[in-house]
Q: What sequence folds into this?
């Protein structure tokens, strides 16, 4: 039976409604729109990251055995940079943007005013649980919203730490954390939000979008997909191999939305690429990578079993050219390279999100673009080449959330670039000012005086007025002069 205490702690639809109403009251007071409030909250967030780095490292070690360097660089470090950017640019972001007006509204002036949506929901993911939780929150705060953060229950240590630290450091009348799993998320999704920001997979994204549609709530969906790497032959192979490894296994052991998902190269070049990957992998992770402290473990047994099912598929089980070692008791799978993987295999039908890297071979590298474009649009796409014509063709032909030439994943760190997907890899984008914009409504404002009131827009509608209106709407000065003198 449910105890009285459990009932009180239960987060259901009623609790969700109360929470949203409380935050809506705070937002309605105008508190969160204030520049000083925004600055104070961003500084508090920076202080949280500064003072609790070791606790964050420990939580991520607990959840996914993430190496400390990856936590410091890709979670804490990137969040600090986001805070710094927002603090530095906030006044500029908040300032109205002056825009030109047309002759049809003369005399007038106009501007675009950024205003917060209101009360927003951020639903985060487990693989980069601090970064993917707090980076959107930074944008929501900068824009002036009240925020509810729902961290992933699959990273319980991080979820608990986020709830604790945000409770201690942030303004809880405006910023709240709700922990829990499916029931709690469902209760949150039943509420009317002013915007929902979701990071995760396409299956849950459809549930989020359906819930948002009931209230016509706008969404940002940060998803994933099969991010390809095209490898040409005229390159520095050692550097290319290292950068592919850094983007694949050096990012959470492949458990990252922008990790290289598969490689496309020519039949002739594939053996050289495989040899380079083998050499560098052994250099980085040793002869027994299952014991390496520089590789994250698989997050849980369900994901482990899913990855092994991909590996045990009859079409690819004989294609392993490096790695393949596994230890279920420790949830570890070694970096694994597969060569000449059939395109109709299970491993090529879904996002891998783990340490398996298939290589597809083609006769000519130009064919790689058809391979990529025959699949849903990925979150990222990479190419290694010194051929300028191939680079241009790649940029022009391949549709993806983001492209990187001669590296992988590092576009994530450039705050002047939007980060987001297209098609099945996502809706909307964030990072830097794009985060501010993601949580802001761009309000059109037109200013006029009582001077210059023209009778042309008022009845009775004469033939002269019709002729002049046509000329005005056409926008041509000469046509207006002709209309005034009665010439069509």
A:
């Amino acid at each position: 039976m449910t105890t009285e205490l459990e009932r009180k702690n239960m987060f259901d639809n009623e609790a969700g409604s109360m929470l949203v109403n409380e935050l809506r009251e705070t937002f309605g007071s105008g508190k969160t729109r204030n520049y000083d409030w925004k600055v104070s909250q961003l500084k508090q967030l920076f202080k949280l990251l500064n003072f609790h780095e070791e606790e964050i490292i420990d939580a991520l070690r607990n959840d996914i055995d993430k190496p400390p360097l990856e936590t410091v660089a890709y979670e804490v470090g990137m969040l600090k940079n986001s805070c710094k950017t927002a603090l530095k640019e906030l006044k500029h972001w908040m300032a109205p943007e002056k825009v030109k007006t047309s002759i049809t509204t003369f005399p007038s002036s106009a501007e675009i005013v950024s205003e917060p949506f209101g009360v927003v929901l951020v639903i985060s993911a487990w693989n980069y649980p601090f970064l993917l939780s707090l980076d959107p929150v930074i944008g929501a705060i900068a824009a002036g919203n009240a925020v509810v953060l729902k961290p992933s229950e699959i990273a319980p240590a991080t979820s608990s730490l986020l709830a604790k630290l945000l409770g201690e450091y942030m303004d809880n009348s405006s910023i709240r954390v709700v922990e829990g799993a499916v029931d709690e998320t469902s209760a949150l999704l039943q509420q009317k939000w002013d915007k929902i920001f979701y990071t995760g997979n396409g299956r849950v994204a459809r549930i989020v979008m359906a819930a948002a549609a009931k209230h016509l709530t706008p969404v940002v969906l940060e998803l994933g997909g099969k991010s390809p790497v095209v490898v040409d032959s005229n390159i520095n192979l050692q550097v290319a191999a290292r950068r592919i490894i850094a983007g694949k296994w050096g990012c959470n052991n492949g458990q990252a939305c922008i990790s290289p998902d598969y490689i496309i190269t020519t039949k002739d070049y594939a053996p050289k690429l495989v040899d380079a990957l083998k050499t560098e992998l052994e250099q980085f992770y040793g002869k027994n990578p299952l014991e390496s402290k520089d590789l994250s473990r698989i997050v849980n047994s369900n994901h482990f079993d899913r990855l092994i099912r991909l590996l045990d598929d009859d079409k690819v089980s004989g294609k392993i050219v490096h790695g393949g070692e596994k230890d279920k008791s420790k949830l570890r799978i070694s970096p694994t390279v597969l060569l000449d993987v059939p395109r109709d295999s299970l491993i090529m039908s879904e996002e891998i999100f783990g340490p398996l890297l298939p290589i597809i071979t083609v006769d000519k590298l130009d064919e790689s673009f058809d391979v990529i474009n025959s699949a849903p649009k990925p979150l990222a796409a990479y190419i290694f080449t010194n051929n300028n014509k191939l680079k241009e063709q790649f940029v022009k032909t391949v549709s993806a959330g983001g492209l990187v030439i001669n590296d992988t994943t590092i576009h994530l760190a450039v705050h002047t670039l939007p980060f987001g997907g297209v098609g099945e890899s996502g809706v909307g984008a964030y990072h830097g000012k794009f985060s501010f914009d993601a949580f802001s409504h761009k309000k059109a404002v037109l200013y006029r005086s009582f001077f210059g009131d023209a009778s042309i827009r008022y009845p009775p509608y004469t033939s002269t007025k019709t002729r002049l209106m046509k000329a005005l709407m056409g926008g041509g000065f000469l046509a207006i002069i002709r209309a005034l003198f009665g010439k069509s």
Remarks:
- The chain has a mean pLDDT of 94.
- The chain has two domains: 11-223+432-442, 228-418.
- The two ends are 84 Å apart (CA to CA).
- The first strand starts at residue 97 and ends at 99.
